[in-house]
Write a structure and sequence with these properties.
The protein is an alpha/beta fold. The protein has helices spanning 21-32, 52-64, 78-92, 117-147, 188-208, 236-248; strands spanning 12-15, 39-44, 68-72, 99-102, 163-167, 214-219, 258-260. Strand 1 (12-15), helix 1 and strand 2 form a beta-alpha-beta unit. The protein binds NADP nicotinamide-adenine-dinucleotide phosphate. NADP nicotinamide-adenine-dinucleotide phosphate (NAP) binds at residues 17, 19-23, 44-45, 50, 73-76, 103-106, 126, 167, 169, 219-220, 222-223, 225-228, 232.
Length: 268
């Protein structure tokens, strides 16, 4: 059985940055893959704005699948985060939030010559600081879900109970940035922001363990999205279908891990 089937027993899943790319594909696959969770909360910077084509796609998906709820969330705006938590709380009530997927991200392309302090901070804020602030804000709802025990009962860890999944990149791996591979993608802001997200994931895994909330970082592969570009080998469908199978099958042994979209362990 594919791990993705476990999403069926999941009350509520939230995806940030669902307006396009991998976030949109996550929502699409969760809604129509035959293992739909109770509620799919698709957040985007501003439900009324954005590129018309992708805004339209998410809207159409929500019209087709009544369990998709579109909520506004600008991940770098604390007021927006708090408003979102409030709305999600009203939606999920006593069930809480089972799975938070911190997917929204940016790639500020700059190398050693062109990187500025502003570029570094902008990338760091969206990719590393925002997932931490969002997880902190959603903690009461995650704890509420975790306290209900989930399918495996108390002591178990899974997305059916409560989990935080951080969408990171293998480009954030310090160990892999050496030798031949280091000559590609000399992107200081992006690489360092995803390294920081990896450490945020590991720190949060330590802090959320007592509450039974699984926390890990996952690399979606190199995918043909606005960020990944047209040369990438994977389609969003290929990446997300494998990724959901991996995320759905996570247990306590994966707590605090850094995994590839295929499920293999990646070096930090
Ligand atoms: N594609 C790849 O090859 C690849 C590889 C490794 C890791 N990743 C990671 O996977 C995640 C998704 O990447 P992608 O390829 O889907 O990128 P993408 O096509 O550029 O989409 C990025 C998404 O993040 C959202 N976003 C950015 N800043 C935001 C903010 N302040 N508030 C709310 N939403 C915001 C965008 O919303 P708007 O439409 O409103 O701008 C969009 O929905 C990222 O974290 C990325 O680092 C991607």
């Amino acid at each position: 059985m594919s791990g993705a089937m476990h999403f069926r027993n999941c009350g509520a899943v939230l995806v940030t940055g669902a307006s396009r790319g991998l976030g949109l594909q996550l929502v699409h696959r969760l809604a129509s893959g035959g293992f739909s969770p109770g509620k799919i909360i698709a957040t985007r910077k501003d439900p009324r704005a954005g590129a018309p084509a992708s805004a339209q796609q998410l809207q159409e998906l929500a019209e087709k699948h009544p369990n998709i709820h579109i909520i506004s969330l600008d991940v770098v705006n604390q007021e927006s985060i708090e408003r979102c938590v409030e709305q999600v709380g009203q939606l999920v009530q006593e069930e809480g939030l089972n799975c938070l997927i911190n997917n929204a991200g940016i790639n500020v392309v700059a190398d050693f010559q062109t990187a500025t302090a502003e570029m570094m901070i902008e990338n760091f804020h969206t990719n590393a600081v925002a997932p931490l602030m969002i997880t902190k804000a959603f903690l009461p709802l995650l704890k509420r879900a975790a306290s209900r025990g989930g399918a495996g009962g108390a002591g178990s860890m899974s997305i059916q109970r409560a989990a935080v999944i951080n969408m990171t990149s293998s480009l954030g791996s310090v160990e892999l940035n050496w030798g031949e591979q280091a000559n590609n993608f000399k992107w200081y802001p992006y690489r360092t922001s995803t390294s920081a997200l990896n450490m945020v994931s590991r720190c949060m895994a330590v802090d959320l363990q007592p509450d039974g909330i699984l926390c890990m970082a996952v690399h979606p592969g190199w995918v043909r999205t606005d960020m990944g570009g047209s040369e990438a080998p994977l389609s969003p469908e290929e990446s997300i279908s494998s990724l959901l199978s991996v995320i759905g099958g996570l247990t306590e042994k994966d707590h605090g891990s850094f995994l590839n979209f295929t499920g293999e362990i990646l070096p930090w």
